[in-house]
Structures are given as C-alpha cells and as structure tokens.
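Re: weekly structure request thread

Next one in the queue (836 aa):
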Amino acid sequence: MHLMGSVITKMEAYNMCGCLLLVFSLLGATATAANKTALHIGGFVASIGLSSISPDIQYGTKEALEFVNRNQDILPEYHLIMVQNYTNGTTKEQAEALQILYDFIYNREQIVMLFAATNSMVTQPVCEVASFYNLVQVSGTASSPGLSDKERYPLFLRTTPTDAILVPAWEALFRYFKWKRIAIIFENVEIFTLLMKELVTLLNADDGYNLLTVEHVESGTTPTVQLDSLKNHDARIIVALAYEEISRQIMCEAYRKDLIGRKFVWLLLGWLNEDWHLQRNLEDDVTCSNDEMNAALKGYIAVKGSSYSDDFSDVDFYGVKPESYDIGVYNFMQSTYGDYAGFAYDAIVAMAIALNRSDEIFSQLDPPRRLSDFTYDDVSMATVMRNAVQGLKMIGVTGGIQFTDKGDRLTEVVVEQMQGEQLVTTGRYDVSNDVFSWADDTPLLWQGKLPPADGVTKIYMVAVPSSYVRYVVYTLSGVGICLSIICFAVNVGFRKRKAIKISSPLLNNFIILGCLLLYAASILSGHNVSNLTPLQFAVYCHVHVCFMYPFLSPSQSRPMLLSVGLSLTFGALVAKTYRIYAIFKIAMEKFKKIHVGDTRLIIFVVVMVTLDILICASWIIADSMYKFIRTLYTKELTDDNGHDYRYIFQTNECHSDYTVYWTIAIFMYKAIVLLVGVFLAWEIRAVEIKALNESRQIVLSVYVVAVPSVFTSAVVYLIDGDMTLVYALVWISVLCSTTLVLGLAFVPKILLLKYSPDNIVTSTLNQPSVLSAEHSRGQDSCIVRDNHPECESTITLLLDELKQKREKLAFLKTISFNSQRMQLSLQGSLEESTEL
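Done, posted below.
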C-alpha cells in the first residue's frame, strides 16, 4: 500500500495502525515463528485520542517490530514481541503507569527491556522503579533533562533528543543575532523547571547577557500577570517553555497585550504537535480565534532535536541496511506521521540490536547463557544490555544515533520558523562544533528588513561642544592674545615714560601674563577625551587637577590656567593699589616718606600663585581623582524596521570624593583677595594722579568678573545638558571679562601717553572748597546810603566776616604750600619705588 502511493487520511492511518498492532500483539502472544523463541519487551503508550503523538508512536513501533522480525541479521533465534498497555493521560497517569509496570513484572511473561512511556512525567517514576528490577528502559519520546540523572535513572537511554540539547542551541541563536536581553516564561512542571534552570545557568555564566525576568505559570491558569511583567520589562526576545495548553494561553495573552509583531521574537519548543496552537474544542480556555493565534505566532522560532534523516538510503542499523520496501515505509512515515514515529522506530530497532549483541556476549560466558535466562534480579545481564545500547553507533530513520555517558542521544538541533501557517526548517545547529548551517531555500524571514533587536538599542555619545562654536571661541581667544601682545609691547616700549613708569611696568607684565593664561585656557578646553584608556584617563585627571578646577558651574571643569590667570591679574592690580595706599595714605598720616619696591609686590603675586599650586598638590595627594561619566540627556528614535534607539549623551569628568571642599577653598581665598582690592581702591579714591589711581579699574574689574560669573552660573545650571550652549556662554563670558580687565588696565595709560605731555603730571588731593558759598552772594543786598542808618549794622557784620575769611585764606595757603611739598616728595618716592 505504501509503495503504491495510496493516499489515505491520517485518522484512517491511525485506526488501521491500531488494529494492525492489536492483531499483531495478539498473534505474537500466542504463537511465534518456527524454531524461534519468543522474546518480550514491555511498552507504555498513551491511549489514542488522549495524546496527539500516540498514533505516531504506535505506527513507528509496529513497523520497527516488523522490520526486526523480518530481518535474519537481528535476533535470528528470537521473535521480538512488545507487550504493551495504555495509559489514560489523566492526572492519575503516573499511578496507572506504575500499576502497568507491576502487571508486566508479576502477571506477564518475562520482560527483558522496557519501551518507556510517552510522557516524561510518567517515564520518570516508571524508570526509577524499573531500575530496581534491572530493566533497561529505552524511550523514543521522553525528553526531560531530569532523565539524564544517572543516580536516579541508571538504566535509562533515549533515541529522542533531550531537551537539554536545546539550551546551547538557544544560546547560540542569541549570540548569532546579538540578542543580550532575554526573558523566560515556563510552565511550573519538572521538565520545564529543569530546562529553565539550565538556560538561566548558561546565561548567567556570561556577563554579556541580561536576564530580564523569569516568569512561571501554573498548569490550568491564565498567564495574565506574567505577560504584564514581560511587557513591563520591555522583553523582546522571549523563551516559552510549556506544554500545548499553556503555550496556547501564553501566545493568546501575548496577542491581547500586543507583545507580537516585528519587535518581538518568541522561541518555543519544536516538539509540540504541528497544530498545537489551534483550538481543540469548545471547552478550550483559549479565548483567541484560530486567526488570532496564527497572527500571534507569525514568525516564531521553534527549536528541537534532529528529526527525520535527509536521505533514507543512508540508513544503516549497525551493518543492517533497509530494503526498498523499508525505505518506502520511511517515506510514508515522514509524510503522514510526526517526528515521534521515527524516534519510536529507531528506539525499537536499537533495543533489538542491543539485545542481539548482548546475546552474543552471553553465549561466550562460562557456562553459556541466553536472553531467555534473564531474571529481574540479574544485575550483570542488565549491565551488559545497557552497555550494548549505549555503545551503539548507527544511522537510523532520524539520522545518526550515538549515546552519551548519560544515555542521551548526540544529535543536531533543527531550527524551524512559522512561515505562513506552517513550520519550515530554516537551519540546523551542530552542538559539538557550535556551527549553524542555514537553508538557502527557506531562510529565516523577519517582519522587518532586519532581525528584531533585543530591546531599545542604547547608543552612547560623548557630548562635546559644536566645532563651529569652538572655532569662534578659539578665534576670539586669538584676538585677545594679540591684544595682550600689543599691551605688552606698549608697556615695554614706553616703560621710561612717566605715565607707564609710575604704574609699575613689571606688575603690568604680570597682568598681561594673567590675561594670556585666561585666553589660553579657552583654547585648551572643549576637547574629547573619551578615547583615552583607563590608565591614560587617570593620568589625565591627576594632571587635569593641576590645570583644572571647577569654575562658574559645579558640572563644568575649567583650566587652572583660569586660577593662575586670576591670581596674576588681580594680584598685580591689588599689589599696585597697595603701594599707592601705602605711599599716599599711610605716608600722609605719618608725614614721612615710605618706600615700597617692586620686589615686595612681586613676592605677593608669587605667593598667590604658590597658594594655587599648594591647593592643587594637596588635592592630588589627599583626594585621588577618578573618571566620572555623567549623562546629560537622551533622545529616542525608531527606524523603519521597528528598531528603537536611545541616544545617550554623556560627558567624561574628573571627580574626587571632596571636590566641593577643594573648590570652596579656592573660591574663598580668591574672594578675600578681591575684597582686599576693593577696600584699597576705596581708600585711595582721593588720589587724582590718573597714572596711579586705579581704584575705578579695580572696582570695575571685580564687577565685570563677578557679575557675569554669577549670571552665567545661574544660566548654566538651568541648561546644563546643552554642552554647546554651556561652552559658549562660559567661555564668551570669560573672554569678555578678560578683555574688559585688560582694557581697563591699559587703555587709560595709552590715552595718557597720547594726550598728556610727559613733564606734566598733576598731583592733587581732593579738598573741600576754601571759600564758602556766601562769596557768591551779591553785594547789593544792602545799599548804603547816608540817609539809611539801618544799614550800618549790616556793614559791620560784613566787615567782621571779611576779616575772618582773610585769616582763614592765609592759613589755607600755608597748608596748601606744605601739602604740595609733601605731594612732590611722595611722587619722587613713587618714582624711586618703580625703578626697574
């Protein structure tokens, strides 16, 4: 029938196979072939209708028994018979299976091996008990990783691949598609719990993976809460481990919660029945229609152990090759039944070949023994039979068959994908070589142009100021440096002129140097240091603290060139002001000549710069610097493939544990210097020698530094995330302040050089007016006439007042003469103090 290509329905095949197997079992139980000894094996099969794979198993075992008994190279002296019984597939199935085992052992013919139960949950207790009766168990369906435990199941082997082999395949898929963020949802039964634990262990062993969440679902419940958790974790790559019913519930709930589509990849077990996602009956708890389930499962990936061989002509059962009739059976089996028919077929043939090899070993013993001599308390014969199965190496209907020390089958892993409404094989994974081989004709298809991402792709960007803004700042700095050079040339070229000489040319040079450092600071800022290695960045930070300190904003580091520049500029201004204060204030009060040379003033400036250096050196030694990455802001975008991108803009900063305290220390002593300068400027405000009195310049310099700094700090705090705007505001503020300070210091001197003769330097002190305002009164307030005696008293008063004013005028002339002598003396003292 098979060779003639007759077309029958799958249900008809199920019924026919069941009848044939029943007839075959009855005939085998009552009679055997001539000159052959009946050899019995026990079989556990779920009842048809209660398990979707029962017809597959029954057909595979029936055809395998026919192949063994028909072939004279396998058990030639025996007729192999499988004594089988059905389990009901209910919650009491384990107990029923143990009852069947009891019946096999105590009420049936001697059994030499067991074909294990369909379900892993039933197989486990049966095999555990059967081991005490020295019965080797071979399974074509049970895939639970728990059955690899040789302490509990020492005599168990299987031709179906263990689910444990799926774990490295999943991890290889994750690596292949660069998926790092993984979520797992599983049914809370032992087979899936063990599988989940192996996968979690493998993922946790690699720091590159991020296991988002592991959700468990109880049998018979709706996984609403679990799917909510997956959504809250933004899970995109999801591994679902469950039997058919819970798998339907999971995917239906995923459809309801919009966890499907081009952004998601679901990885499910490949050994589920082909139409597992479709509704079974009206009592099915799944609320989704078949169309909705098909939409939910579009593109899902199924992973399973290798199934049918690609070329049945390669089949070789330990030297026994199939005939053309058998190849026809294999083709029919593949087209009509599922993978488990092939696994069951290979399991029965493997058992028969192992028994055949064991019988040869028994016959060489002294005394010789036979398979029919086996008893349930014979440990040695059971060990020989188990080793015979484990030592097999052959090519079966489902491909190469070879067993590990744990009794698991070595095989490839098949990767399938739901394309349209059916699963197609898209590739295979070689576990031993860690290699994928993808199908050319049926590649993986994605709902976008590219494979889905495992979540929002984070792209870290180093935020640096715009190059155009930096070029503008560099240009302004260059202009400022040129102005500083011009001022230096004027200061040196005209240092012999009194307008420059009495203003201390050497200290003027310090002011120019300070401004140059402030201009240079802007050129050294704004560069990207993110490419430095950790060691290089550590060195950079420790050098950086010597040339950087927080200025204007806690989040913005500025060169210490600013600190030194401020010390030089304002230190020189304050030093010059102190000399004017000492000469004109202290000398006038004590009426003696005071000499304040440049050396003392230079020492004062050097002390300020040294204090900067000492603070920074202490900072480095006592409070080590480290790299701090600060996130400024983020932007999120989605491309045409549904990939979500989050651009994270960051900046690399040098930080220490006590940065704030070191900053306060620098600010405090800078503020003290500025306040001293303001005080001295106020004290010498009465000096009107334009070349000397720089009180206004000092006050204005403090103003143009302090006010923009405070304003800029407030604005920078509000817009801290925009590096370009912050950079522009800070450095334009610094450059403008520096230029104004430079202008206030040198523009008045340049004007004096141009408009004042070198031999005229006025030196006066502001004094109150000598004459009272009454001198401006008119003299016609009283007209003296001979016939007006009332004016005589007025005239007398005026004469007395005139006499007093004459006496006061004489006194003031004397004071003015002495003051002029003192002023000329002080001016000479100042010129002596400013000699280079």
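The chain has a mean pLDDT of 78. The chain is about 50% helix and 15% strand.
Next request, please.
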